[in-house]
Amino acid sequence: MLRFISFCLFLIPGFAFGQESILFPRTPDISPDAKTVVFSYLGDIWTVDATGGNARPLTIHTAHDFQPAFSPDGKFIAFSSNRHGSYDCFIIPAQGGKSKRLTFDSANDIVCGWSPDSKSVLFSSNRGLGYPGFSNLYLVSIEGGQPIRITFDEAKDGTINPAGNLIAYTRGPGAWYRKGYRGSSNDDLWIANLDGTNNKKITDFNGQDSSPMWGQNGNAIYYVSEAFGNPSNIVRVENKAGAKPVKITNHTSEGVRKARISANGASIVYECGPDICIVDTADPNNSRKIKIKALADDKTNTDRLVTFTQNASEFAFNKEESLVIFGVHGDLYRMGISGSGKPVRLTDTPADDLSDRTGRVEVFLLESADAEHPKFIEAHQFKAKQITNDEKPESSLTFSPDGKKIYFLRAGKLWSMNLDGAEQKEVVSISMITEYSWSPDGKWIVYSRRDGSFASELFIIPAAGPTKENPPKNITRYATANYSPTWSTDGKRIAFVSERRNTPGLFVMEMQKPVANSKTMLDSGAIDFDEIHSRVNAVGTMNTTDAAISPSGSKIAFRSGDELWVASVAGGQVTKLSTGLVKPQGIYWSKRTTDLIYFRDGNGSLRTARASSTLPGADLGSVSFRIKMMIKAEEENLEIFDQCWRLLADNFYDAKFHGADWGMVRQRYRPMVSHVPMKEDFQALVFLMLGELNASHLGLQMTSGFPDEQTADLGILFDESFRGRGLKIGEVIKRGPADKRGLDLKPGEIIFAINGVELNPMVEVSQLLNGKIDEAVVLSVGPETPSDPKAKNRRSVEITPILRDRMVPLLYDRWVNLNAKKVAEMSNGRVGYIHIPSMDDAGLDRFVRALYSDNFDKEALVLDVRFNGGGFTHDQVLNYLGAQEHTKFLHREGDKGAVLRSYDRKWTKPVVLLINNRSYSDAEIFPNAFKTLGLGRLVGQPTGGMVIGTGSAKLIDGSTFRIPRIGVYTNAGVDMDTVGVAPDYFVEPMPEDLKKGIDAQLQKAVDVILTDMKSGNLKNREKK
To answer: CA 1015 to CA 1024: how far, in whole Å?
Structure first.
């Protein structure tokens, strides 16, 4: 009889609503006369008197409207909204009214401000083609039409000076929410002419600079910076050479964000903590908070009735397999295994009852509170009893087979306790245990313990715990990853996953020595530990990620790829049981039905399969359920917020939280949750909380909408300096939709019309290409000036455009090929070039292919990890570098080599490494190792200083949250999440060089390697 269910819970108090000042209004701007403030709140645009008071909504839409900006003449407000899936630019009369859409591209267009004449809106967008794909600044007329690109390389957060001839902008990969960051991946302020020329960097602080604002006469720039320490404040700098910033505001607890200045230069409005503040530029010592009230009804129902037929997070059966217990949206349900009848709800809290209820992860016992039905399996009312109270979280809860004890993991150690929580003790006191499994007779426990190098071994201990006479026994003795152990019912076999051939595969271990003929083993639970590690057999060669052995020990069900398979333990028969990429999880063999397998698929449905099936997918079934649940939006957001906070409290790699008072952080930010019902604002609030840690590898990924129509891509780069009619072809991208036999499109030709629509400044090309992916599009093409004025100068060309995402690898290949060509030209073919785009298997494959097939005959190599976001393959790449040739193998035909296997070839010649401020994580570990090992010189910019070992967790609503669990340090003890890797030669790329196709970092790398080759200074890399 199932009397208890173990689980973890978290209680959220009820909400109170009052007419108090609002919290977390966002992205404010101020009217030209400094009398009115406009801001985003509840997903709408509001206005309020600059002195505070009751605000009035200008927009009322279910989408998210933000980034409002007053026109200099005060007549209009521009803003961005995702009303059509992605963010577009809109304008609305300043006093309210109907909004007008200005941009139509499926990329996000974010309003920055206006032109001084109030005729155009300035916005940032990543709609431009190229690699790497940065955001740039554009101007679009308030009458609509084709936006004009202003900046070339990368720019955001722009503002045009009052004279209309200069633009100030931020450039860099800085994170707006991160506090205290110091490194190369920050944002700096730049100034350029309005045509994008004469770019000059005006700040060199290695922290974050943002929100540039021109003073009234354009002689000074105000901006937000941490240059005077944390938190950020508004500073002012004269627009002249050698000027030093002057601090304007003096906030000491909460930092300044998102500042804007009035057109008359009198006042600056900005975000600060949970509020909007204002400061007069003539009297900067008197900044003040604007107290705002916003009286509004909900635009949508805050409570929603949701019907779940999937999305189960986990499941378990009672001993008789008559009932299944499963979790949906944080609550537990009981249901008959047949799926008939209504599921019985066991818990009902806003918290995630599979995660937390008290603010920490604790263990609870659930039992009947039904006087008429005292048996748990029959009860309809339940009570929960908390039985642990520890700061460290518990996980992996099981009952001992006799039902008398509860076992669990706490801080990586195995613990046990009585059913009432008494007599808690460490069963295994060493940490880093990741999972464990009971022997069927309850006498033994097998567990997997990981070491600091991510290898793991399987150990067996007595269930009561190891003793001096019977210590933990390493049964695998194979220093790789060994995990996912399951025991056959007779106790004679353990199945597990092991990475013995570089990829995870299935293995079976025999618990007993072979039995002699005519002899029987009386004790089925006995274990012969002598040489047990040698009694292991591989079951096939398939890549495996999860497995479970059948009760009889004769078969193993496992996941390979995204499907469910079954194999005999002898490895002689492997059968695919599923189709359709079911992504099986939690594989469980029925103890009652011989060949029945239960699992949870990738959609959270409870599924069944038959091990005897001969046709994939033919015998798949389901344990269906239908649950109606009322979800309260505010309670759900509070739970998500609390889960994010708690996951870091329990798992962040630095127990001191980089100096942040993490408990106080929760108290500061949690009251704002009820003010951010829009997921876009809620996500921003969570990121702001995460910014207090000043750490990388953090983030909350929530489901987001898609554009109503994707903007298709023709596979053509256009000459953006061309100001005539139509679009001038600059380049046809190889292997793109325009690079087809018979189209014969050439650089310099003009596209005059698309699908019969003549192109002119009032036609936005994106609008003509929306929804045209994989559809035929007819272009009218001809020369800019026909050779014969009387001749027809147009022809029709039919192209089938593609999704922009499919253009990304083509643009990347173009960039790599251009770099390789430049290196070859500069070195007369002596030096090769390889770019590693990512430190993963795909990036490694590209590296190995380029090394062996394209560059192995070169005299030296330029290796490039710029724009590499990281991964895990630094050691594999290093394995190909730095070796010394030791032996020669001479073939009869005369060729010779240094290895017997092609995959053992190593690069033994000079190499120089390119890095920049977008080399992250494992692409920082690699150059640090490269430098430490003396493999060559580094050229470029310091890396970002963003290196943490990270994992992820699913939250109650299905969102994904990143968890930085493992610190990474240099040999000198430097935390690599605080200090980037410095180059030997610093080179900062300039926008105008990049516009001309000049890569100064690449040029310097070639110069360095050629100089070293000439001088012989190769850091012991020259062949002997």
So the answer is: 16
- Pairing type for strands 563-568 and 555-560 reads antiparallel
First to last CA, the chain: 76
Name the β-bridge partners of 939. Answer: 914, 985
Q: Which of 399, 1012, 956 is nearest to 629 (CA)?
A: 956
Enter the tokens of residue 679.
Answer: 């997921």
3-state secondary structure of 847: helix
Contact between 576 and 563 under an 8 Å Cβ cutoff? The reply is: yes
Give the integer Cα–Cα distance in Å for 170 and 186.
10
Q: For the sheet containing 136-141, what is the strand order?
A: 109-114, 120-125, 136-141, 148-149
Backbone angles phi, psi at 948, to 5 degrees: -145, 145
Report the candidate in 136, 15, 17, 25 with the shortest Cα–Cα distance to residue 684.
25
Q: CB neighbours (10 Å) of residue 995?
A: 16
- The single-letter DSSP state of residue 42 is T
Compute how many other C-beta atoms are within 10 angstroms of the C-beta atom of residue 9. Answer: 24
Place of tokens 């196709």: 997
Structure tokens at 58: 């200008």
| 3-state SS assignment for residue 449 | strand
Encoded tokens for 930: 């490269």
Count of CA atoms in the C-beta half-sphere (13 A) of 548: 19
Residue 741, number of CB atoms within 10 A of its CB:
5
Q: Is 501 exposed, middle or buried (0-12, 13-18, 19+ CB in 10 A)?
A: exposed
Beta strand pairing call for 985-986 and 937-940:
parallel
Q: Which residue has the tokens 């393959």?
A: 873
Would you give the DSSP letter of residue 853? I
Instruction: State the DSSP H helix or E strand holding residue 546, giving kind and residue range, or none if neither.
Output: strand 546-549
**Of the candidates 439, 430, 425, 491, the residue with the CA atom closest to the CA atom of residue 457:** 430
Side-chain-facing half-sphere of 858: CA atoms under 13 Å: 28
What is the pLDDT, as a whole number, of residue 297?
Answer: 85
Q: Is 248 helix (H, G, I), strand (E, B) or coil?
A: coil
Q: Which residues pair with 630 in a beta bridge?
A: 305
Beta bridge partners of 382: 368
Beta carbons of 253 and 207 less than 8 angstroms apart: no
Entry pTM: 0.93
Which of 649, 652, 660, 658 has the alpha carbon at shortest distance from 975? 658
Quick check: helix, strand or coil at residue 482? strand
Which token pair is 348?
Answer: 């009902």
pLDDT 10s digits, 371-411: 999 998 889 999 999 999 999 999 999 999 999 999 999 99
The counts of H helices and E strands in the chain are 10, 72
Sign of CA dihedral 842, 847, 848, 854: positive
Phi-psi map region of 870: left, alpha, beta (phi>0 left; psi -120 to 50 alpha): left
> Which backbone phi and psi does 814 adopt, to 5 degrees?
-60, -45
What pLDDT does 518 receive? 63
Q: How far is CA 160 from CA 106, 116, 119, 121, 190, in A?
A: 25, 7, 13, 10, 12
Please give the DSSP secondary-structure letter assigned to residue 334: E
Closest CA to 957 of 316, 362, 344, 306: 306
Half-sphere exposure of residue 288, counting CA atoms within 13 Å on the CB side? 10
Whether the CB-CB separation of 482 and 458 falls below 8 Å is answered with: yes
Tell me the C-alpha distance between 842 and 280, whole Å. 54
456-462 and 473-474 beta bridge pairing = antiparallel
**Residue 670, both tokens:** 């949690």
Cα 355 from Cα 447, distance rounded (Å): 23
Structure tokens at 813: 């290949």
Low-confidence ranges of the chain (pLDDT < 50): 1-18, 1020-1024
CA distance 39 to 62: 16
**Per-residue pLDDT tens digits for 243-288:** 899 999 999 999 999 999 999 999 999 999 999 999 999 998 889 9
pLDDT at residue 524 in the model:
65
- Written as one letter, the residue type at 847 is F
